[in-house]
Design goal:
By secondary structure, this protein is α/β, with parallel strands linked by helices. It folds into two domains: 137 residues, Alpha-Beta Complex (Aspartate Aminotransferase, domain 1); 248 residues, Type I PLP-dependent aspartate aminotransferase-like (Major domain) (Aspartate Aminotransferase, domain 2). The chain is built from twelve helices and 13 strands. The strands form three sheets. It has a seven-stranded mixed beta sheet, with helices on both faces. Strands 9-10-13-12 form a four-stranded antiparallel beta sheet. α2 runs antiparallel to α9. The chain is globular and about 70 Å long. The two termini are 36 Å apart. The structure holds pyridoxal-5'-phosphate. Its EC number is 3.7.1.3. This is Kynureninase. It holds the Pfam family KYNU_C. One of its GO terms (cellular component) is cytoplasm.
Protein backbone atom coordinates (compact mmCIF):
# COMPACT_ATOMS: atom_id res chain seq x y z
CA UNK A 1 0.00 0.00 0.00
CA UNK A 2 1.27 3.45 -0.87
CA UNK A 3 1.50 5.72 2.14
CA UNK A 4 0.48 9.32 1.69
CA UNK A 5 0.15 12.26 4.04
CA UNK A 6 -3.54 11.52 4.62
CA UNK A 7 -2.80 8.02 5.84
CA UNK A 8 -0.12 9.46 8.12
CA UNK A 9 -2.46 12.09 9.55
CA UNK A 10 -4.99 9.35 10.26
CA UNK A 11 -2.36 7.54 12.34
CA UNK A 12 -1.98 10.68 14.45
CA UNK A 13 -5.73 10.96 14.92
CA UNK A 14 -5.84 7.38 16.24
CA UNK A 15 -2.78 7.78 18.48
CA UNK A 16 -3.65 7.27 22.18
CA UNK A 17 -0.42 9.08 23.20
CA UNK A 18 -1.01 12.16 21.02
CA UNK A 19 -2.14 14.25 24.00
CA UNK A 20 1.29 14.18 25.64
CA UNK A 21 3.01 16.30 23.00
CA UNK A 22 1.58 19.58 24.32
CA UNK A 23 3.23 18.94 27.68
CA UNK A 24 6.61 19.52 26.04
CA UNK A 25 8.15 22.83 25.05
CA UNK A 26 9.12 22.06 21.47
CA UNK A 27 10.28 24.91 19.22
CA UNK A 28 8.18 25.92 16.21
CA UNK A 29 9.47 24.65 12.91
CA UNK A 30 11.62 21.90 14.42
CA UNK A 31 11.17 18.18 13.93
CA UNK A 32 13.05 16.77 16.88
CA UNK A 33 14.38 13.27 16.33
CA UNK A 34 17.16 13.32 18.91
CA UNK A 35 15.29 12.57 22.12
CA UNK A 36 17.47 9.46 22.43
CA UNK A 37 20.40 11.82 23.05
CA UNK A 38 18.70 14.65 24.95
CA UNK A 39 15.01 14.37 25.74
CA UNK A 40 12.81 17.43 25.23
CA UNK A 41 11.88 19.85 28.02
CA UNK A 42 8.56 19.64 29.84
CA UNK A 43 6.73 22.81 30.79
CA UNK A 44 6.24 21.19 34.20
CA UNK A 45 10.02 20.84 34.64
CA UNK A 46 10.50 24.61 34.32
CA UNK A 47 7.93 25.17 37.06
CA UNK A 48 9.52 22.55 39.28
CA UNK A 49 13.02 23.98 38.85
CA UNK A 50 11.72 27.44 39.62
CA UNK A 51 9.97 26.23 42.76
CA UNK A 52 13.04 24.34 43.95
CA UNK A 53 15.27 27.34 43.27
CA UNK A 54 13.16 30.30 44.35
CA UNK A 55 11.18 28.96 47.22
CA UNK A 56 13.20 26.04 48.58
CA UNK A 57 16.73 27.23 47.95
CA UNK A 58 16.01 30.95 48.04
CA UNK A 59 13.69 31.13 51.04
CA UNK A 60 14.01 27.91 53.00
CA UNK A 61 17.74 27.57 52.39
CA UNK A 62 19.41 24.66 54.14
CA UNK A 63 16.16 23.64 55.81
CA UNK A 64 15.03 22.27 52.45
CA UNK A 65 17.26 19.21 52.78
CA UNK A 66 14.68 17.96 55.28
CA UNK A 67 11.63 20.08 54.67
CA UNK A 68 11.48 19.67 50.88
CA UNK A 69 12.75 16.09 50.87
CA UNK A 70 15.96 16.96 49.01
CA UNK A 71 18.06 14.47 50.92
CA UNK A 72 15.78 11.56 50.08
CA UNK A 73 15.46 12.34 46.34
CA UNK A 74 17.98 9.77 45.03
CA UNK A 75 15.95 6.95 46.52
CA UNK A 76 12.44 8.35 46.12
CA UNK A 77 13.09 9.07 42.46
CA UNK A 78 14.93 5.76 42.22
CA UNK A 79 11.77 3.86 43.07
CA UNK A 80 9.83 5.86 40.48
CA UNK A 81 12.38 5.08 37.76
CA UNK A 82 12.34 1.51 39.05
CA UNK A 83 8.69 1.17 38.17
CA UNK A 84 9.52 2.00 34.54
CA UNK A 85 12.25 -0.64 34.33
CA UNK A 86 10.47 -3.48 36.10
CA UNK A 87 12.22 -3.07 39.46
CA UNK A 88 10.36 -3.44 42.74
CA UNK A 89 11.05 -0.65 45.26
CA UNK A 90 14.32 -0.49 47.17
CA UNK A 91 16.59 -1.54 44.31
CA UNK A 92 17.12 1.61 42.26
CA UNK A 93 18.87 4.89 43.08
CA UNK A 94 19.07 8.00 40.90
CA UNK A 95 22.60 9.27 41.31
CA UNK A 96 25.79 10.35 39.55
CA UNK A 97 26.27 9.65 35.84
CA UNK A 98 26.00 6.38 33.99
CA UNK A 99 29.79 6.18 33.67
CA UNK A 100 30.28 6.27 37.46
CA UNK A 101 27.47 3.78 37.93
CA UNK A 102 29.08 1.37 35.45
CA UNK A 103 32.24 1.62 37.54
CA UNK A 104 30.39 0.92 40.77
CA UNK A 105 28.39 -1.96 39.32
CA UNK A 106 31.41 -3.65 37.75
CA UNK A 107 33.40 -3.43 40.98
CA UNK A 108 30.48 -4.77 42.96
CA UNK A 109 29.98 -7.68 40.55
CA UNK A 110 33.68 -8.59 40.60
CA UNK A 111 33.60 -8.46 44.39
CA UNK A 112 30.66 -10.87 44.48
CA UNK A 113 32.32 -13.27 42.08
CA UNK A 114 35.78 -13.65 43.56
CA UNK A 115 38.15 -16.07 41.88
CA UNK A 116 36.98 -15.04 38.41
CA UNK A 117 38.84 -12.41 36.43
CA UNK A 118 37.10 -11.94 33.12
CA UNK A 119 34.78 -9.09 32.12
CA UNK A 120 32.84 -9.73 28.92
CA UNK A 121 31.65 -6.68 27.01
CA UNK A 122 30.87 -5.54 23.46
CA UNK A 123 33.43 -4.07 21.07
CA UNK A 124 30.52 -2.02 19.73
CA UNK A 125 29.47 -0.84 23.20
CA UNK A 126 28.87 2.79 23.94
CA UNK A 127 32.53 3.62 24.57
CA UNK A 128 32.26 5.03 28.10
CA UNK A 129 31.28 1.59 29.36
CA UNK A 130 34.52 0.17 27.99
CA UNK A 131 36.57 3.09 29.28
CA UNK A 132 35.15 2.59 32.76
CA UNK A 133 35.83 -1.15 32.53
CA UNK A 134 39.44 -0.28 31.69
CA UNK A 135 39.49 1.88 34.81
CA UNK A 136 38.22 -1.00 36.90
CA UNK A 137 40.81 -3.35 35.41
CA UNK A 138 43.60 -0.88 36.21
CA UNK A 139 42.80 -1.30 39.93
CA UNK A 140 42.50 -5.09 39.73
CA UNK A 141 45.65 -6.66 38.28
CA UNK A 142 44.92 -9.92 36.48
CA UNK A 143 41.44 -8.89 35.39
CA UNK A 144 40.96 -8.99 31.63
CA UNK A 145 38.27 -7.98 29.17
CA UNK A 146 36.87 -10.11 26.35
CA UNK A 147 35.03 -8.26 23.64
CA UNK A 148 32.29 -9.23 21.24
CA UNK A 149 33.42 -8.38 17.73
CA UNK A 150 37.07 -8.76 18.72
CA UNK A 151 37.45 -12.08 20.55
CA UNK A 152 34.36 -13.72 19.06
CA UNK A 153 31.57 -12.53 16.78
CA UNK A 154 28.80 -13.08 19.34
CA UNK A 155 28.78 -12.17 23.01
CA UNK A 156 27.14 -15.51 23.78
CA UNK A 157 30.30 -17.29 22.64
CA UNK A 158 32.45 -15.44 25.17
CA UNK A 159 30.59 -16.54 28.29
CA UNK A 160 32.12 -19.48 30.14
CA UNK A 161 33.08 -20.59 33.68
CA UNK A 162 35.92 -18.06 33.90
CA UNK A 163 33.67 -15.02 33.42
CA UNK A 164 32.87 -12.90 36.47
CA UNK A 165 30.59 -10.35 34.83
CA UNK A 166 28.97 -9.56 31.50
CA UNK A 167 28.52 -5.84 30.78
CA UNK A 168 26.04 -5.36 27.99
CA UNK A 169 23.88 -2.68 26.36
CA UNK A 170 20.18 -3.47 26.12
CA UNK A 171 19.84 -1.38 22.93
CA UNK A 172 22.92 -0.62 20.85
CA UNK A 173 23.41 3.13 20.66
CA UNK A 174 24.43 3.09 17.02
CA UNK A 175 22.37 0.38 15.38
CA UNK A 176 19.33 0.28 17.66
CA UNK A 177 19.61 -3.52 17.96
CA UNK A 178 17.73 -4.81 21.02
CA UNK A 179 19.14 -7.71 23.04
CA UNK A 180 17.12 -10.51 24.61
CA UNK A 181 17.62 -9.60 28.26
CA UNK A 182 16.05 -12.73 29.66
CA UNK A 183 18.00 -15.20 27.51
CA UNK A 184 21.40 -13.55 27.90
CA UNK A 185 20.96 -13.15 31.66
CA UNK A 186 19.96 -16.81 31.93
CA UNK A 187 23.01 -17.90 29.93
CA UNK A 188 25.35 -15.81 32.05
CA UNK A 189 23.88 -17.17 35.27
CA UNK A 190 24.17 -20.74 33.99
CA UNK A 191 27.91 -20.13 33.61
CA UNK A 192 28.12 -18.58 37.08
CA UNK A 193 28.58 -15.03 35.76
CA UNK A 194 26.72 -11.89 36.82
CA UNK A 195 25.30 -9.29 34.41
CA UNK A 196 25.29 -5.51 34.27
CA UNK A 197 22.73 -4.16 31.79
CA UNK A 198 23.15 -0.66 30.40
CA UNK A 199 19.63 0.68 29.79
CA UNK A 200 20.53 4.13 28.43
CA UNK A 201 18.64 3.50 25.20
CA UNK A 202 15.83 1.41 26.61
CA UNK A 203 14.66 3.14 29.81
CA UNK A 204 11.60 5.11 28.72
CA UNK A 205 11.81 3.69 25.21
CA UNK A 206 10.34 0.25 25.77
CA UNK A 207 9.17 -2.05 28.58
CA UNK A 208 12.08 -3.37 30.66
CA UNK A 209 11.64 -6.16 33.20
CA UNK A 210 14.70 -6.29 35.41
CA UNK A 211 13.18 -8.29 38.25
CA UNK A 212 11.43 -10.76 35.98
CA UNK A 213 14.63 -11.34 34.00
CA UNK A 214 16.56 -11.89 37.23
CA UNK A 215 19.09 -9.18 36.34
CA UNK A 216 21.89 -8.53 38.82
CA UNK A 217 22.81 -4.91 38.10
CA UNK A 218 21.62 -2.22 35.70
CA UNK A 219 22.53 1.38 34.95
CA UNK A 220 21.14 4.04 32.65
CA UNK A 221 20.57 7.68 31.80
CA UNK A 222 17.57 9.83 32.68
CA UNK A 223 18.32 12.63 30.21
CA UNK A 224 17.48 10.61 27.09
CA UNK A 225 14.03 9.01 26.75
CA UNK A 226 13.08 9.89 30.34
CA UNK A 227 13.42 13.66 29.63
CA UNK A 228 15.17 14.51 32.90
CA UNK A 229 17.12 17.40 31.39
CA UNK A 230 20.72 18.02 30.28
CA UNK A 231 23.10 16.24 32.66
CA UNK A 232 20.26 14.81 34.77
CA UNK A 233 21.65 12.15 37.07
CA UNK A 234 21.67 8.51 36.03
CA UNK A 235 20.29 5.48 37.84
CA UNK A 236 21.71 2.27 39.21
CA UNK A 237 19.79 -0.91 40.03
CA UNK A 238 21.13 -3.59 42.35
CA UNK A 239 18.99 -6.68 42.82
CA UNK A 240 17.82 -7.12 46.40
CA UNK A 241 19.54 -10.49 46.71
CA UNK A 242 22.98 -8.89 46.19
CA UNK A 243 22.57 -5.78 48.30
CA UNK A 244 23.83 -7.13 51.58
CA UNK A 245 27.11 -8.44 50.14
CA UNK A 246 27.69 -5.94 47.35
CA UNK A 247 30.15 -3.14 47.93
CA UNK A 248 31.14 -0.29 45.69
CA UNK A 249 34.45 1.55 45.55
CA UNK A 250 33.25 5.18 45.62
CA UNK A 251 32.46 4.90 49.32
CA UNK A 252 31.35 8.44 50.06
CA UNK A 253 29.33 9.85 52.91
CA UNK A 254 25.97 9.77 51.16
CA UNK A 255 26.25 5.98 51.11
CA UNK A 256 27.22 5.79 54.79
CA UNK A 257 24.81 4.23 57.27
CA UNK A 258 25.03 7.39 59.41
CA UNK A 259 26.22 10.29 57.24
CA UNK A 260 25.57 12.83 59.96
CA UNK A 261 27.39 10.76 62.56
CA UNK A 262 30.58 12.11 60.93
CA UNK A 263 32.42 8.95 61.89
CA UNK A 264 36.04 8.37 60.95
CA UNK A 265 35.49 5.16 58.96
CA UNK A 266 33.12 4.10 56.26
CA UNK A 267 30.20 1.88 57.16
CA UNK A 268 28.03 1.32 54.09
CA UNK A 269 24.32 1.93 54.56
CA UNK A 270 21.63 -0.66 54.06
CA UNK A 271 20.42 -1.72 50.65
CA UNK A 272 20.69 0.48 47.60
CA UNK A 273 21.68 3.47 49.76
CA UNK A 274 25.24 2.17 49.75
CA UNK A 275 25.46 2.93 46.04
CA UNK A 276 25.33 6.68 46.64
CA UNK A 277 28.59 8.58 46.97
CA UNK A 278 28.28 12.34 47.48
CA UNK A 279 25.97 15.35 47.31
CA UNK A 280 23.52 15.18 44.44
CA UNK A 281 22.37 17.90 41.99
CA UNK A 282 19.02 18.84 43.48
CA UNK A 283 17.82 21.15 40.70
CA UNK A 284 18.44 18.43 38.12
CA UNK A 285 16.73 15.86 40.29
CA UNK A 286 13.72 18.14 40.52
CA UNK A 287 13.50 18.58 36.75
CA UNK A 288 13.54 14.80 36.51
CA UNK A 289 10.88 14.58 39.19
CA UNK A 290 8.48 16.61 37.01
CA UNK A 291 9.22 14.33 34.07
CA UNK A 292 8.48 11.29 36.23
CA UNK A 293 5.09 12.80 37.13
CA UNK A 294 4.26 12.57 33.45
CA UNK A 295 5.67 9.03 33.23
CA UNK A 296 3.29 8.02 36.03
CA UNK A 297 0.47 8.52 33.52
CA UNK A 298 2.07 6.52 30.72
CA UNK A 299 1.40 2.94 29.68
CA UNK A 300 4.70 1.49 28.51
CA UNK A 301 3.06 -1.02 26.17
CA UNK A 302 1.45 1.92 24.31
CA UNK A 303 4.91 3.52 24.09
CA UNK A 304 6.29 0.33 22.57
CA UNK A 305 3.53 -0.09 19.98
CA UNK A 306 3.85 3.50 18.84
CA UNK A 307 7.64 3.32 18.82
CA UNK A 308 7.58 0.32 16.50
CA UNK A 309 4.98 1.99 14.27
CA UNK A 310 7.03 5.22 14.05
CA UNK A 311 10.30 3.47 13.26
CA UNK A 312 8.67 1.09 10.76
CA UNK A 313 7.08 4.06 8.99
CA UNK A 314 10.34 5.98 8.90
CA UNK A 315 12.27 3.08 7.37
CA UNK A 316 9.54 2.44 4.81
CA UNK A 317 9.35 6.10 3.75
CA UNK A 318 13.12 6.64 3.61
CA UNK A 319 13.61 3.56 1.48
CA UNK A 320 10.71 4.43 -0.80
CA UNK A 321 11.60 8.09 -1.27
CA UNK A 322 15.39 8.30 -0.76
CA UNK A 323 16.36 4.77 -1.70
CA UNK A 324 18.20 5.82 -4.83
CA UNK A 325 20.72 7.90 -2.90
CA UNK A 326 22.73 5.16 -1.23
CA UNK A 327 21.37 5.39 2.31
CA UNK A 328 21.88 1.97 3.86
CA UNK A 329 19.80 0.84 6.83
CA UNK A 330 21.96 -0.09 9.81
CA UNK A 331 20.42 -2.39 12.38
CA UNK A 332 17.27 -4.46 12.57
CA UNK A 333 14.48 -4.30 10.02
CA UNK A 334 12.28 -6.31 12.38
CA UNK A 335 10.69 -3.83 14.81
CA UNK A 336 10.44 -6.36 17.63
CA UNK A 337 14.24 -6.50 17.96
CA UNK A 338 14.81 -2.79 17.49
CA UNK A 339 14.94 -0.02 20.08
CA UNK A 340 13.30 3.32 19.38
CA UNK A 341 15.82 4.60 16.86
CA UNK A 342 16.82 4.12 13.24
CA UNK A 343 20.23 4.62 11.65
CA UNK A 344 21.42 4.84 8.09
CA UNK A 345 24.93 4.71 6.73
CA UNK A 346 26.15 7.04 4.03
CA UNK A 347 29.60 8.36 3.13
CA UNK A 348 28.23 11.88 3.46
CA UNK A 349 26.55 11.15 6.81
CA UNK A 350 28.00 14.12 8.67
CA UNK A 351 27.13 16.62 5.94
CA UNK A 352 23.65 15.16 5.42
CA UNK A 353 22.87 15.58 9.12
CA UNK A 354 24.14 19.16 9.10
CA UNK A 355 21.91 19.94 6.11
CA UNK A 356 18.92 18.37 7.91
CA UNK A 357 19.58 20.32 11.09
CA UNK A 358 19.80 23.55 9.09
CA UNK A 359 16.31 22.73 7.79
CA UNK A 360 14.91 22.04 11.27
CA UNK A 361 15.13 18.24 11.29
CA UNK A 362 17.31 17.35 14.26
CA UNK A 363 18.86 13.90 14.50
CA UNK A 364 22.52 13.19 15.08
CA UNK A 365 25.67 11.80 13.56
CA UNK A 366 27.75 8.96 14.97
CA UNK A 367 31.24 8.42 13.60
CA UNK A 368 32.35 7.27 11.19
CA UNK A 369 29.34 7.34 8.83
CA UNK A 370 25.99 6.95 10.58
CA UNK A 371 23.01 9.28 10.73
CA UNK A 372 20.80 8.42 13.66
CA UNK A 373 17.17 9.30 14.36
CA UNK A 374 15.46 8.78 17.71
CA UNK A 375 11.69 8.37 17.97
CA UNK A 376 10.14 9.39 21.26
CA UNK A 377 6.49 8.31 21.29
CA UNK A 378 5.51 10.93 23.88
CA UNK A 379 6.20 13.81 21.53
CA UNK A 380 7.00 12.47 18.07
CA UNK A 381 3.99 12.30 15.75
CA UNK A 382 3.55 10.32 12.56
CA UNK A 383 3.37 13.65 10.73
CA UNK A 384 6.80 14.48 12.17
CA UNK A 385 8.10 11.31 10.54
CA UNK A 386 6.54 12.30 7.24
CA UNK A 387 8.01 15.81 7.42
CA UNK A 388 11.47 14.54 8.32
CA UNK A 389 11.53 12.20 5.33
CA UNK A 390 10.27 15.02 3.11
CA UNK A 391 13.23 17.17 4.12
CA UNK A 392 15.68 14.27 3.81
CA UNK A 393 14.32 13.56 0.35
CA UNK A 394 14.90 17.19 -0.62
CA UNK A 395 18.44 17.26 0.79
CA UNK A 396 19.35 14.08 -1.10
CA UNK A 397 17.54 14.88 -4.33
CA UNK A 398 19.03 18.38 -4.69
CA UNK A 399 22.46 17.38 -3.38
CA UNK A 400 22.21 20.30 -0.93
CA UNK A 401 24.22 18.33 1.64
CA UNK A 402 27.30 18.67 -0.56
CA UNK A 403 27.63 22.36 0.23
CA UNK A 404 31.03 22.84 1.87
CA UNK A 405 29.63 24.64 4.90
CA UNK A 406 28.05 21.38 6.05
CA UNK A 407 31.47 19.77 6.41
CA UNK A 408 32.57 21.98 9.33
CA UNK A 409 32.71 19.83 12.47
CA UNK A 410 31.63 20.86 15.98
CA UNK A 411 32.72 19.31 19.28
CA UNK A 412 29.39 17.60 19.95
CA UNK A 413 27.89 15.67 17.04
C1 LIG B 1 24.39 8.05 26.70
C2 LIG B 1 25.05 6.80 27.19
C3 LIG B 1 25.92 6.82 28.28
C4 LIG B 1 26.28 8.15 28.89
O1 LIG B 1 27.00 8.06 30.04
P1 LIG B 1 27.15 9.35 30.97
O2 LIG B 1 28.13 8.92 31.98
O3 LIG B 1 25.79 9.65 31.53
O4 LIG B 1 27.65 10.48 30.14
C5 LIG B 1 26.43 5.62 28.73
N1 LIG B 1 26.12 4.43 28.13
C6 LIG B 1 25.29 4.40 27.06
C7 LIG B 1 24.95 3.10 26.43
C8 LIG B 1 24.76 5.57 26.55
O5 LIG B 1 23.96 5.54 25.49
Amino acid sequence: MKIDIHAVEALDRDDPLAGFKSRFDLPEGVTYLDGNSLGAALHASYAEIEKAAKREWGQDLIRSWNKAGWFALPLTLGDRVGRLIGAAPGQTAVTDHTSANVYKALHAALGLNTGRHVIVAEGGSFPTDLYMAEGVIATRPGTVMRLEGVDAPRIEDLIDETVAVVLVNHVNYKTGALRDMEALTRQAHAAGALVVWDLCHSAGALPVELDRCNVDFAVGCTYKYLNGGPGAPAFIYVAKRHQEKASQPLSGWWGHARPFGFERSYDGGAGILRFLSGTQPILSLRALSAALDLWDEVDMTAIRSKSIALTDLFIKLVEARCGAHGLKLVGPRDGTVRGSQVSFEHEGAYEIMQALIERGVIGDFRAPATIRFGFTPLYTSFTDVWNAVDVLHDVMETGAWRDSRHAVRSAVT
